[in-house]
Amino acid sequence: MYDVVIVGAGPAGLTAAIYCVRSGLKAIIVGKVVGGQAAEASLIENYPGFKSIAGFELTSRMAKQVEELGVSIVGDEVVGVKEEDGLFKVRTSWSGELRCRALILAIGAEPRRLGVKGEEEFRGKGVSYCAVCDGPLFRGKRVAVVGGGNSALDAALYLSSLAEVVYLIHRRRQFRAVKALVDKVDGRSNIVKLLGKSPVEIGGDRLVEWIKVRDVETGVEEKIEVKGVFIEIGRAVNSDFLRGFVDLDEYGQIVVDQLCRTSRRGVFAAGDATTIPYKQVVIAAGEGAKAALSAYEYLSSRG
Question: For residue 196, what pLDDT is reported?
Fold first, then answer.
């Protein structure tokens, strides 16, 4: 039995674990991917203490610190949670059931699907949702990045150091990313911006060979020869298993107050899966610390 079970191993969950231990709580982390979405960032340039650091390196350091404090990180997926007899029971895919007195939800978010023909067929065969993971496979080749936010431009910049050409496809006429990233993209000669274009199909023989885009104004379609398509159109919160357990908003985000408390006593949430705005690594880490401190206060009040 644990004082706290932390669901999710991204910056929020890892930081929560550190603060739980420092508060004298027995904690365990359950998460499919250590580091979460942050681990996929090619470079993080706005985390205090580091002028520039790879996302994988930063989250690996966090995980190492957590493990050195004696907290286990279980690589598994949580499929159900319930409250029974004053305790929370956390059901996993293959690690059995964990019991705890308080629960911290730091489940993060999953990549959104584009929903075009060929996307699922070529997933893992040229279609990717992680530039850092799969980018080296396309060294010297032509690739496309779909999206117009920070993650899309970050992926394009990373891939531009590997690929021959990077086609950056966005359905709007302007990027939504911060100006610093837009300026960097403008400075890369091998990034070709295709604005006002909407992807309609991904195709090829056994592997990706092209992506078809449609001009949003004229309706004219064209095929662009690429070997890889990186889809960076945001993340969706996989919170279906929480419906009826805690309050969710229309986007599936966990509703929390300023102390990371959910609608259910003893259950706290932090990170990109919550209604807290500005999805940033440093904010997720701070919210993770806050959730742990709130959990400690809750458990202390119970005696």
Answer: 98
The pLDDT assigned to 242 comes to 97
Identify the CATH number of the domain defined by range 2-109+237-302. Answer: 3.50.50.60
**Set 3, 76, 134, 247: catalytic member:** 134
Q: Which fold has domain 127-231?
A: FAD/NAD(P)-binding domain (3.50.50)
Catalytic residue, candidates 3, 76, 130, 247: 130
Q: What are the phi and psi torsion angles at 220 (to 5°)?
A: -70, 135
Angle at CA 149, nearest 5°, toward 144 and 154? 60
Judge whether 134 counts as a catalytic residue: yes
Whether residue 130 lies in the annotated active site? yes
Averages of pLDDT over runs of 10 residues in the chain (303 residues) are 98 99 98 90 88 94 98 96 96 95 95 94 92 89 97 95 98 96 97 98 97 98 98 90 96 96 99 91 97 98 86
Q: Which of these, 9, 236, 41, lies nearest to 106 by C-alpha position?
A: 9
Contact assessment for residue 260 and residue 270, using Cβ atoms and an 8 Å cutoff: yes
Does the active-site annotation cover 3?
no
Distance from C-alpha of 85 to C-alpha of 67, rounded to nearest angstrom: 31
- Per DSSP, the three-state class of 68 is helix
Amino acid, res. 165: V
